[in-house]
Amino acid sequence: MASHESTNDVDRREEKRDSDGGSVATNVVPRPIPGERRKVALITGITGQDGSYLTEFLLGNGYEVHGLIRRSSNFNTARLDHLYVDPHNAAKARMKLHYADLSDASSLRRWVDALLPDEVYNLAAQSHVAVSFEIPDYTADVVATGALRLLEAVRCAPKPVRYYQAGSSEMFGSTPPPQSEASPFHPRSPYAAAKVAAHWYTVNYREAYGLFACNGILFNHESPRRGENFVTRKITRAVGRIRLGLQTKVFLGNLSAARDWGFAGDYVEAMWMMLQQEEPGDYVVATEESHTVEEFLQAAFSYVGLNWKDHVVIDPRYFRPAEVDSLKGDSTKARKALGWKPKVGFQDLVKMMVDHDIEIAKREKVLVDAGYIDAQQQP
Predict the structure, then answer these.
(1) Region Disordered: start and end of each range (predicted)?
(2) Domains in the chain, ordered, with CATH?
(3) Per-residue confidence (pLDDT) for residue 29, from 0 to 100
(4) Model-level pTM greater than 0.85?
(5) CA 143 from centroid of its chain's CA atoms
(6) What is the reported pLDDT for 373?
(7) Which pLDDT does position 74 carry in this prediction?
(8) Which of 63, 99, 191, 267 does the annotation list as catalytic?
(9) Can you list the positions of beta strands (E) in the chain?
(10) pLDDT at res. 171
């Protein structure tokens, strides 16, 4: 498909919806200095949680933002709707979407060459750990080899490009906490192993070709925009529905798994900071606090006056073939070198997500009460 056709397909949507709760960035359009070229950023995975927050942040800093998205029969751009401006409004449209795929090297090369970005953020991935055990080949192709394809496109670009690779705390796997940039990787899933490969591809291209390429090893980061099949959002969605009488139970797996949970809106700022340094490097981004899934349950349910033990059922299907017991980051390097630190704490993060999902449940209840949907779809 020709590039102008794919862009037009994406640009047919003309409606904008308000942002969901939890956003700390605002889409303020600064006036550029006359004659000065805006910085251009290219983001893969722009439709995801991190992509939407990063887009908000970059637009607020005066960037022109381009996102690569996969073709789908349904639009999957809901997280960006509040930022969307019809491209025919050239004076205001500073975010544009283009069709491409990390499995298609030609599309990556074409857009890097055509857009001439100053910065490339590779956030795209099959990012669900449990699903990576179900589709390991696809996960490896997109997460690992996809990063290699994009790095090659950046290497061959007509101008120097700064590159950010989204790493994951899952790469540490069974390595005991706290985990820092010096900790060894011991991945425990196809997703984590693929992320390790992408990490070393990035290091190799930095060392072999002199690319300004950074790895951000981000520990778990959540928000109201988190996908509903991730445990934190699954919990807060259930809390909202249970509070409104739309369901009674939520089915979960390992409650003793401990994670270092932060707010995604804070973490995207660290991504940007990495690419503003004089020299490229790799950074752990974390709150340096660890909480179990059970602690997350306690915080979420107690916030609305409920006892989680009355509503949680353990289902063996949600246990991983190889568990990661404890992740807790040591982000000393990022705090000293970048001047980054998290702004949203654990309790505030949980409350933010629960508040958002109660509002969703309220709207859902209106439809249930009117007979448009069945409240008994979940037990």
Answers:
(1) 1-31
(2) 40-370 (3.40.50.720)
(3) 41
(4) yes
(5) 14
(6) 86
(7) 85
(8) 191
(9) 40-44, 64-69, 95-99, 119-122, 162-166, 212-218, 221-222, 250-252, 258-259, 262-263, 282-285, 291-292, 312-314
(10) 98
**288 contacts: CB under 8 Å, gap ≥ 6:** 178, 260, 328, 329, 330, 331
What are the tokens at 230?
């991730």
pLDDT at 87 (0 to 100) = 87
Spatial contact of 107 and 101, defined as CB atoms under 8 Å apart: yes
Residue 366 φ/ψ, nearest 5 degrees: -60, -45
- Distance separating alpha carbons of residues 81 and 326, to the nearest angstrom: 36
Catalytic pick among 23, 107, 168, 326? 168
174 is catalytic: no
Residue with token string 């989204």: 166
The amino acid at residue 58 is L
Residue 194: CB atoms within 10 Å: 28
Asked if 152 contacts 204 with a C-beta cutoff of 8 angstroms, the reply is no
Amino acid 97 reads: L
Give the tokens for residue 290: 């660890």
Catalytic site residue 170?
yes
Catalytic residue among 56, 64, 119, 170: 170
Which whole-number Å values give the CA distances from 267 to 166, 212, 332, in the listed order? 11, 20, 15
Instruction: Specify whether the backbone of 181 is left (phi greater than 0), alpha (psi in -120 to 50) or beta.
Output: alpha
Rounded to whole angstroms, the Cα distance separating 176 from 172 reads 8
For residue 190, say if its preceding peptide bond is cis, omega within 30 degrees of 0.
no
The answer to whether residue 168 is catalytic is yes
Residue type, 279: E
